[in-house]
Automatic annotation (TrEMBL):
Its EC number is 3.1.21.-. The keyword Oxidoreductase does not apply. Pfam families: Methylase_S. GO terms for molecular function: endonuclease activity; hydrolase activity. It is an enzyme of class 3 (hydrolase). It comes from Bacterioplanoides pacificum. It comes from the Bacteria. Residues 1-22, 464-486 are annotated as: Disordered. This is Restriction endonuclease subunit S. Belongs to the type-I restriction system S methylase family. The lineage of its organism: Bacteria, Pseudomonadati, Pseudomonadota, Gammaproteobacteria, Oceanospirillales. Keywords: DNA-binding, Endonuclease, Hydrolase, Nuclease, Restriction system.
Amino acid sequence: MAANSHSGTPDRREGGNPLPEGWCFSQISDVSLKASQRKPDDEESFAYVDIGSINRDLKVIESPQKLLGKEAPSRARKVIKQGDVLVSLTRPNLNAVALVSGEFDEQIASTGFEVIHPLLVDSRYIFALTKSKEFVDSISGAVQGALYPAAKSSDVQAYCFPLPPLAEQKVIAEKLDTLLAQVDTTKARLERIPDIIKRFRQSVLAAAVSGKLTEEWRKNEGTVWQSLVIDDIGEVKGGKRLPKGDELVEENTGFPYIRAGQLKQGTVINTSDARSKQLFITAETQAKISRYTVNPGDLYITIVGASIGDAGVIPQHYSGANLTENAAKITEFKKPIKSQFLSYWLRSQELQDLIQLEIKSGAQGKLALKRIKELPVPYTDIDEQTEIVRRVEELFAFADRIEQKAAAALEQVNNLTQSILAKAFRGELTAGWRAANPELISGDNSAEALLAKIQAEREKLALEKKAAKKPRKKKTDAVTATKQTR
């Protein structure tokens, strides 16, 4: 029997791992039938499920195409039925799998799927197997081709797994439905936290630059806010394009060149990403554009491209760096100013909305230096600015801690799914159930007995299929001879 060839030893071990009582090892091919294929009729309307129809996060079929047969691609051939399990053979590491619901019964899927048609086993159990890390690693390890790595049908069919008795499969599937739904709910809530934190930061900025954050503090200090424009605060100057023929270099020449891709998160970043990696100019180039450098505490604001309006403060370690022509700087302050306070205003939603209006009314989607000079600025004395910066930094630090904890929790939840699946396939989720129902896992109800039933059913279906294809019997020689004598 197929199960014996995979169980390895009498104590039902595979790779040294003991199986619960009544279980045995099997391959996908032992418990399923191959899906049938056909070419849709020209005028036939059907739902076409291709790789793009699978929501990889939710593991469901989502918005398949509605096609007529004459419009169908040549890959639209595999007939799918309710309870079938779809496994994408292309880039199997992405785990595009789904359980076919009644809505898509008798529809057509791409030949890019292996369609598992479970026979006398619980489809939900087989579907859960295909979501496990062990399955993904096994299929991904067998991919063929470098450009579009793809597994083969035989890789899926040969996958070896622990098979419980049918009654236990159903219990496991129900437990997984409940537990994984709870995990998904928790995951969805955690994934919303970054957006909540983002809105919280914007609310803090709005309160800071409107004076609401320090309203009580101001009653004791008696400060008064003014409505100014940026030109009242400091000088607005542009960056500089590299001279024709000069190029950026990766070698640290001592002359860093700040590009637009680095002007993020309210500061200047330096990452391994090509757009935000720190590059440099030569001493010769520096001599040509030395008037376009920045000082610590200067404000930057991007003026072209998709990220127009990104703003922040030049940090200390970028003193004397050269600034891209795609950004402007606010420097040589005319009034006492905390750079961070002005940065909060530039990054606030209120000013960002004004900038977008300026861009739409301007030419070529560019924020001109003249328009920057005319942007409004709320201004208060340096003491209140200092207090605002202190409070904002305190609240932002609190938000950072919440975000870090949420990210750590989300990582744990992501790992929890695989942990639950692993426990399920070791029989740990149903240990108590087995103890209470020994009659449902032994004898004729064992997994080995189930495999025997599947094999018998497979043979029966093969005979029926063969009989259906058998041609009509030829007329007997006697009948033929009688006709000939007439």
